[in-house]
Amino acid sequence: MTSFDRRDLGLLLLRLGAGSVLVAHGTQKLFGWFGGSGLSATGDFMESVGYAPGKASATAAGLAETGGGTLLALGLATPAAGAAAAGAMGGASAVHAPNGFFNQSGGYEYAASLGLTSAGLAVTGPGRLSLDHLLGHSVNRGWMVPVAFAGTAAVTMVVVGARNKRLRREQEGDQGELFDEEAVPYG
Q1: Whole-angstrom distance, CA of residue 79 vs CA of residue 166
Q2: Sign of the dihedral defined by the CA atoms of residues 3, 6, 132, 148, in that order
Q3: Which phi and psi (to 5°) does residue 140 adopt?
Q4: Phi, psi for residue 180 in degrees, rounded to 5
């Protein structure tokens, strides 16, 4: 029989805490639970902050948060779960970054904390009080960590990069004309 130590208990607490928060956050987007807006309104919000198409972006974020959070809490497929949740929080951090760090000012503190916790769990592993351990770590191999993070980083960079490009185009479109041709006398 395997004995459990305080590290295993600590990892279980981190997984349950972060996973539960992520599930609640994701189901707000997907289903409107816990005072959330639901998919349609969240899609409109996502569109307004540059993630287009909005409903598809809301669905992807909600699934990454809900699915990643559920798997983290269970300690199942921990590398993929942590990477997916960290990627979703990277996208959220991009939205909040202009407001600074602290959450009280609308900053990225909350998203960064959830993302870093998820990433840390993906790297560390779930501990022995987990489904990964129970299943012999069949979906929690060492090679899966860099693969999961590489895939998530690539997708997150493409999505956030497209958002930033879209926002730059909108800002450029808001500028007036540089010269008023009718006001310039010729000759």
Answers
A1: 31
A2: negative
A3: -145, 60
A4: -95, 105
Residues 67/80, Cβ–Cβ less than 8 Å:
no
26, 19 Cβ separation under 8 angstroms = no
Q: What is the DSSP letter of 77?
A: S
Question: What would the pLDDT profile of 68-103 be if each residue is shown by its tens digit?
Answer: 999 999 999 999 999 999 999 999 999 999 999 999
**Whole-Å CA distances, 161 to 100, 157, 164:** 19, 6, 5
Nearest Cα residue to 93 out of 127, 118, 76:
118
Token pair 């959450």 is found at 103
Q: What is the pLDDT of residue 171?
A: 87
Cα–Cα distances (Å) from 65 to 81, 120, 183, in that order, read: 9, 16, 55
Tell me the three-class secondary structure of 25-76, residue by residue: HHHHHHHCHHHCCHHHHHHHHHHHCCCCCHHHHHHHHHHHHHHHHHHHHHCC
Q: Do the beta carbons of residue 132 and residue 126 sit within 8 Å?
A: yes
